[in-house]
Design a protein that fits this description.
By secondary structure, the protein is α+β, with helices and mostly antiparallel strands. The protein is built from two helices and three strands, in the order H-H-E-E-E. It has a three-stranded antiparallel β-sheet, with helices on one face. It starts with a helix and ends with a strand. 9% of the residues are buried. The model is unreliable at 40-46 (pLDDT under 50).
Length: 102
């Protein structure tokens, strides 16, 4: 019985070590080959929605709840949800702001 526990313990340690090794391999950055004449698949943007959302929330005096990129009317925009402080124990007001990216 003790040999079985020892074997089981060694197997568990081996599996956990293999899992740690596999997770470090998966987390490694991947190199993307560049092919001459092929279109660039990465589209650069001037800012991210989270940073734009933080700026908007600071301007209106609220707290950023969500900032997501969307395409509306063929244009890349950030849809920002800001929670505005409430008065007299009421729930915070939800303010949605749409800001064009770029």
């Amino acid at each position: 019985m003790t040999q079985f526990r020892t074997l089981l313990r060694k197997a568990a340690i081996g599996i956990s070590m293999a899992g740690m090794f596999a997770s470090s391999v998966v987390a490694a950055p991947l190199a993307v080959p560049s092919v001459p004449g092929a279109p660039n698949l990465v589209v650069p943007v001037s800012g991210d929605c989270y940073a734009i959302g933080m700026q908007q929330a600071a301007q209106v005096g609220g707290q950023l709840a969500r900032a997501t990129p969307e395409v509306r009317g063929g244009q890349q925009v950030c849809v920002i949800v800001v929670l505005m402080p409430a008065r007299d124990g009421q729930r915070p007001r939800r303010n949605e702001i749409v800001v064009p990216m770029g």
